[in-house]
Amino acid sequence: MLADTWQLMQLYWKIDWREGSGQSKWRILATVAGFAMLLVIGAGAAGVGYGASFLNQLDPPYRPDPGIVPGVFLTLVMIGVLVTGLNQAVKSLFLSGDLDRLMVAPIHTRSVMIAKLLSRMPTNLILLLLIAAPALIAYGIGIRAGLVYYLLGGILLLAAPLFGLSLGAIIAMLLVRLLPVNRLNELLAAAYAVLGLTIGLAFQLPRFVAGNEVYESVTVDALGSIVQTVNRLPFPPFWAGRGLLALDQGRFDSTGLAGLGIFLMMTVGFFVVLIFTADRLYLSGWLKTQSAGTKRRRLEDNHGFIGRGSLPVAMAWKDWLLRFRDPRQLVNVLGSGLFAVILGGLAIFRGSGGEESLMSAATQGEFDAPGIFGFFSAGFSPGLIMAGWAMFVGFIILSNTASYALALEGGSFPLLKVAPVRARDVWLAKVWSILLPYAIIFVVVLLFTRLVVQYDLRWIPYAIGVGLVIGLGLITANVSAGFRFANLSWTDPRRMMTSSGGFLAFLLTILFSIPAGILAFLPFGLAQIWPAWSIPLALAGLALLIAGTWGWNLLMRRWAESAWNKLPV
After folding, report:
1. What CA–CA distance (Å, rounded) separates 452 from 459?
2. Is the omega angle on the peptide bond into residue 64 within 30 degrees of 0, that is, cis?
3. For a pLDDT cut of 70, what percent of the chain falls above it?
4. What is the pLDDT of residue 472?
5. Are 401 and 434 in contact (CB under 8 A)?
């Protein structure tokens, strides 16, 4: 069994090496850049580890147990590999393309399972060596640890990932008995996206506390009790950290040895038990995925809600049903909107470093100025800021959806291309399928802000008209870029358009939004100088904006039509 396992792992490493060495120069440069970024992160981790050594100089109750810090590093490794271990187990154990041949080959199921789980271990080891290991080493330097600390700490770091791989494999084997494996993969991708958004938003929490003396005092007072609670936690990685320092100091107490033993049983022991007991569970789960078929549904001639409606309505309805069916795309839409609302709100309503926020200064009239200076100060009026934020929220929520509109067709695109429909009709259908949700989001957010911020209601019709016209121009730019750079063979919803296409879509939005924003602001700014001409200025500005956006849309539509003919059938 060991010989077969080692041979399979060698073959997988050779395949990975050939795929990596056979990439284009741009991907190789991207890999080198990513490796350089990991080195920077590793240097930062080393700084954190060395800085953690100074925590031992704090007075109680703010001083943590010295063994807690190595335990925290081990915990981060275990949790990190656990998060990725489930996804890796599902893909390697059940979605790999060579399983059909391996399962009928004269190879034990255990060998296949071990090789599949450990074939990607070099990637995890690199992450450990460049992130976790520098922190552990730097902490040892800071506390002047001995040789035993570094040798035993390295062994513990190498053993930590086995827990995440083992638990992820067990969970994957159980879940595939309840859910189709492809559906499970989609749900996991959505769950990881939600987790990433949650972590990203968690880093914004200090901005709510900064500058608030009440919250800061409560946080400082609670820090001592938190440290005391962590010191008392019966957590195996913390026990292992205490045992590591105890052995390094020459103390062979029962608590330290028991902590190290429990940690190794939790990692290496769990993996060994999995290998010798879960092979039948793995085989039965894989056989179930092979026998799982799709339910045949009776297709009847039923016009339903759409009936004999137009192509834009039918295609928009179909596209949004597909997006709501795939949780990965749904998380992509909702996650972008969540970031837009929270981060945009923080930038407007919260000051940084104790300074007054932009909205507080605007509502108090600090930017008001008479005469010609009123033209420039009008850019900081509460109504204009809220209209810009509402437009930002609506577009950020749907920008990726617009870029991926055509790529959503995927493998069915050849049928669409040979169908008796014009590229112009498809482009128009994709634009309207995004524009209508954008209009709803923009108007709802704009009207909701009126409940929070007081501003002049007379300019709301103009703000709505400008927001819809500018939103149309931004959406057409993204949809047209998606026509040109669509990845019709996508499997990951985040890769439905090439990276160059995403960058070009960003440039197009900047190219359109800057002159359009200036043109939309001119009537509002000039009205502060000549209030009697407010309505004519607003009508003239809106007419010019509509004319410019019409020309922009014509240019984007022709670009999309020319790209349509170049897309493969």
Report:
1. 17
2. no
3. 71
4. 92
5. yes
**18, 24, 25, 27: CA torsion to nearest 10:** -90
Q: What is the pLDDT of residues 13-40, one digit of tens each?
A: 677 666 655 555 556 666 677 677 777 8
Give the pair of three-digit tokens for residue 10. 């060698």
Whether 310 has a pLDDT exceeding 50, the answer reads yes
Q: Which sign does the torsion angle of CA 235, 237, 240, 242 carry?
A: negative
Token pair listed for 270: 């769990």
Residues 6+ apart with CB under 8 A from 190: 327, 328, 330, 331
pTM: 0.56
In terms of Cα–Cα distance, which of 99, 279, 79 is closest to 199? Answer: 79
Cα 480–Cα 315–Cα 407 angle in degrees, nearest 5: 45
The domains of the chain are located at 2-291, 311-564
Tell me 295's DSSP state. P
Contact 413, 469 (CB under 8 A): no
* 397-435 pLDDT tens trace: 888 888 888 888 877 778 777 777 788 888 888 898 899
3-class SS at 406?
Answer: coil
Grade residue 218 by pLDDT with cuts at 50, 70 and 90.
Answer: very low
For residue 65, CA distances in Å to 50, 71, 72, 116, 307 come to 16, 10, 11, 39, 69
The neighbour count for residue 426, using CB atoms within 10 Å, is 25
Q: Which amino acid is at 430?
A: K
**Which among 80, 48, 242, 75 has a CA at the least distance from the CA of 152?**
242
